[in-house]
Amino acid sequence: MTGNIIANRYAKALFSLGCTTGDKALAAYAGSLGKLRRAVQVNPSLAQVFRSPIFSLAEKRNVLTKLAKSLSLDKTVLNFCLLLSEKGRMGSIDGIADAFDTLLDVKNGVIRGEILTAVELEGQKQEAVLSDLEKKAGRKLALQFGVAPEILGGVVLKVGDKVMDASLRAQLSILKDSIKRGE
């Protein structure tokens, strides 16, 4: 819980700075944070360097500077990360990036979610489903498409803490319960 509070505070600070600078800056910050997050996820030893008290602040700053150069990170994001390393908070970069993305989504009116189907949908079908759902929702959606063969057919849509289960498995379960009750 404390990690979320810390991540939210730092993300809000960077987001506030980006809002004063403009939408281009916000997009650049989000892109740079995303690159950094992926680099840390792909290379767990990098995360250990940032979390470990064994490495000095100068060593961490050196690693960050080289990483920023190789990833072409925004200069403000680099300075932000250098501040994080000074405060011993660089280990929270994943949570900070998530919180920043959430703030950006709220600002842009984007709803994130996940849609599961029994079989993988091709690109055109994904676009058609996404377009149809956006029309019904009246907002921009950013959905991750996944495959869950156990649903047998149909779709399961998860947005935030809400789940719309229009799967064949759910329909069969309802039918089974109805038969058991004698309806």
Give an overview of the whole structure.
- This protein is of the alpha+beta class and 183 residues long.
- It has two domains: 2-106, Peroxidase, domain 1, CATH 1.10.520.20; 109-181, no CATH class.
- Helices cover 66% and strands 15% of the residues.
- It is built from eight helices and four strands.
- Strands 2-1-3-4 form a four-stranded mixed sheet.
- A hairpin with a 2-residue loop joins strand 3 (154-159) and strand 4 (162-167).
- The radius of gyration is 21 Å and the shape is elongated.
Question: Topology of this structure?
Answer:
Blueprint: H1 2-21, H2 23-42, H3 44-51, H4 57-71, H5 75-86, H6 93-108, E1 110-117, H7 123-137, E2 140-147, E3 154-159, E4 162-167, H8 168-181
Parallel strand pairs: 1-2
Antiparallel strand pairs: 1-3, 3-4
